[in-house]
Design goal:
The structure is a single chain. The chain is mainly alpha-helical. It is built from 5 helices and no strands. The radius of gyration is 42 Å and the shape is rod-shaped.
Length: about 180
């Protein structure tokens, strides 16, 4: 039964508490060993570790009720001297479960935050790359447009010189294309 404690911890703590305290309600037993407390400790730890606080408190209440039944029905266990020996392990199991639950939640939150920061960093890098490419393309466009403008102006000036003074319009060492 304890094998399912991670899937349904509240159900398991209820079943284990009923199995521990149930026989005491039917008949009065004269002795209860730690063997019946160990599964209850494990179930209480599991409900504290694997559920939200409200469900964990409900599991602790069920466990406390089972302990109360056993302590009232078994005279040897119900003495005032045995109360700390019974409650301290159960309190420790619950506290350990809650501490580990908080630590797990903190790790999950930190991991999710790291993933989110990584994705934001990747988006920032991609945006910077896109901006840089756009800037380079704009500069290349300006350079090419300037060069083409200069060539058009020079061609227009050369054509004007060819009409007025053909020798001035020719580039030294440049042969005319055969037509």
């Amino acid at each position: 039964m304890l094998a399912l404690r991670r899937r349904a911890p509240l159900l398991i703590v209820c079943v284990v508490a009923a199995a521990t305290a149930g026989p005491e309600l039917i008949t009065r037993l004269t002795i209860t060993l730690w063997g019946s407390y160990a599964p209850l400790l494990i179930a209480l730890y599991s409900v504290a570790r694997h559920t939200r606080l409200r469900v964990a408190l409900a599991g602790a209440a069920v466990t406390g009720l089972a302990l109360l039944v056993v302590m009232l029905r078994v005279p040897v266990i119900g003495t005032a001297a045995n109360i700390p020996f019974t409650l301290v392990p159960f309190t420790g199991a619950f506290a350990a479960g809650r501490v580990l639950r908080r630590r797990h939640d903190s790790h999950v939150e930190t991991r999710d935050r790291a993933r989110r920061l990584d994705s934001e960093r990747e988006e920032t890098i991609q945006a910077a790359i896109t901006d840089e490419r756009t800037r380079i393309a704009r500069e290349l466009h300006d350079i090419v447009a300037h060069c083409v403008s200069v060539m058009v102006i020079q061609a227009g000036a050369a054509e004007d010189f060819l009409d007025r003074d053909p020798q001035l319009g020719r580039v030294p060492g440049l042969r005319p294309l055969p037509i």
